[in-house]
Design a protein that fits this description.
Blueprint lengths: L2 E6 L5 H13 L3 E6 L13 H6 L5 H7 L2 H21 L5 E6 L1 H12 L7 E5 L7 H4 L5 E4 L9 H19 L10 E6 L4 H13 L3 E6 L3 H11 L5 E4 L4 H7 L12 H5 L3 E3 L6 E4 L14 E5 L2 E5 L2 H15 L6 E6 L16 H14 L5 E6 L6 H18 L1
Parallel strand pairs: 1-2, 1-3, 3-4, 4-5, 6-7, 6-8, 8-9, 9-13, 13-14
Antiparallel strand pairs: 10-12, 11-12
Helix pairs in contact: 1-7, 4-5, 8-14, 10-12, 12-13
Length: about 400
């Protein structure tokens, strides 16, 4: 029988959590209850709040006495983040669920993010709308809108809570176990590099690899980096590094300052290119910062405006990408498409810019440590089949030599 971890503030929301516990029992699931509130729970949990606080060296009574809600919440979040993954590794539960407002959601989601991808994770939350990145991050946490506040049992809340219970039950009952194991490759793609990545992906799959494609929209890049650090991949085909343009020049699809680090630092074979480094991404045209108003823009769709990078900006991108690639401790290759870096950076297209591309390539040539990173230059456009196949074959050779 599968076990579901029910984690939350059993003092302020005891009736709601007891409803979950009893419903799981009714449909044939065991539960493991962890109390993250600071006061007495409405029912006896399997893991007390004292135990959770002790995980990070805190005394619960002292926390309560200080009457500092922010400090208490932070302590319980850190304690929960520490104990939950350990209990999972010990086989104490197979799925995890919670309820809460902003406080409860902020306590439980770091612990859920610390669990492996694929472990069912549900939070019924008042915060399940708008920007939820601070709760979900790069994980597969499911935030389910509570519709009404998590404040009692009523005709709406009980329906939402029961839906969450049944969703968890379904994920655990129908878990896929027969999955063919193939070596995993991570690849990055943007709409304007799709032909390249699709061709490379097809070739890799023909050779027996499974390719997971990440959309280079900020979250995609961060997710890939996290999974590389977690040891999921045998190789990385990072052909679309456009997120650096947004990181450096204020675009909306940045992946943060640690993009392009994981594979190199972890010694995972990687083939890297400069896909879509001809553009910075903004929202609708009226959201573009005023100081960029006289630039070359391309309306990708009503919600996305692309701005062509200048030669000066491309030099900065090249310098930054070289800096990150120089961290490599394993086999790394940088492959440059000398005839264009995106679908709209080709002859006759709106972002065609040989001078701008040359600035990017020159900066990479000048700053790359070729004792650590092999530099390949390909006289083709990034979306040409010859380029895509060259990148894929290079990665396969590197992975096979490491195997």
């Amino acid at each position: 029988m599968k076990t579901v971890a029910i984690v939350g503030t059993f003092d302020s929301k005891g009736k709601e959590f007891l409803y979950l516990k009893e419903l799981f029992a009714e449909i044939g699931f065991n539960t493991l209850t962890l109390h993250t509130g600071t006061f007495e729970p409405a029912f006896v949990p399997d893991v007390s709040n004292e135990e959770i606080a002790a995980e990070v060296g805190e005394n619960l009574r002292e926390l309560v006495a200080q009457k500092d809600r922010a400090r208490a919440t932070a302590a319980m979040a850190k304690g929960t983040e520490k104990i939950v993954p350990r209990l999972y590794q010990e086989g104490k539960f197979q799925g995890i669920i919670s309820l809460g407002g902003s406080g409860g959601t902020s306590i439980i989601t770091p612990a859920m993010r610390a669990l492996p991808i694929g472990v069912p994770k549900i939070v019924v939350s008042t915060m399940a709308s708008g920007n939820t990145e601070q709760y979900v991050g790069t994980s597969d946490v499911i935030l389910m809108p509570s519709i009404v506040d998590v404040a009692g049992l009523n005709s709406i809340s009980t329906k939402i809570f029961s839906n969450a219970v049944f969703a968890m039950a379904g994920m655990l009952k129908h878990e896929v176990t027969k999955v063919e194991k193939k070596p995993l490759v991570a690849a990055t793609m943007f709409g304007v590099t799709t032909p390249c990545v699709e061709t490379a992906k097809a070739y890799l799959e023909e050779q027996g690899y499974e390719v997971l494609v990440f959309h280079a929209t900020g979250t995609g890049g961060r997710t890939m980096e996290d999974l590389v650090r977690s040891g999921y991949f045998q190789g990385v085909l990072d052909l679309t590094t456009t997120e650096w343009c947004d990181e450096l020049f204020g675009g909306v699809l940045n992946a943060g300052p640690h993009r392009s680090e994981a594979a190199g630092l972890c010694g995972v074979p990687q083939v890297v290119s400069v896909g879509a480094c001809d553009m910075v991404n903004f929202g609708p045209i009226d959201t573009v910062p005023e100081h960029y108003k006289n630039r070359n823009f391309y309306k990708h769709n009503p919600s996305v405006t692309l701005m062509r990078t200048t030669a000066q900006e491309n030099r900065a991108v090249g310098e930054k990408l070289a800096e990150k690639l120089n961290l490599a401790s394993g086999e790394s290759v940088l492959i440059l498409p000398l005839k264009g870096v995106s679908m709209i950076d080709a002859e006759g297209q709106p972002f065609h810019g040989p001078e701008e591309d040359q600035a990017l390539f020159d900066a990479l040539r000048a700053n790359l440590d070729t004792s650590k990173v092999e530099l390949c230059e390909w006289d083709a456009h990034i979306n040409d089949d010859s380029f895509a196949l060259a990148a894929a074959k290079k990665l396969i050779a590197m992975m096979e030599s490491k195997a």
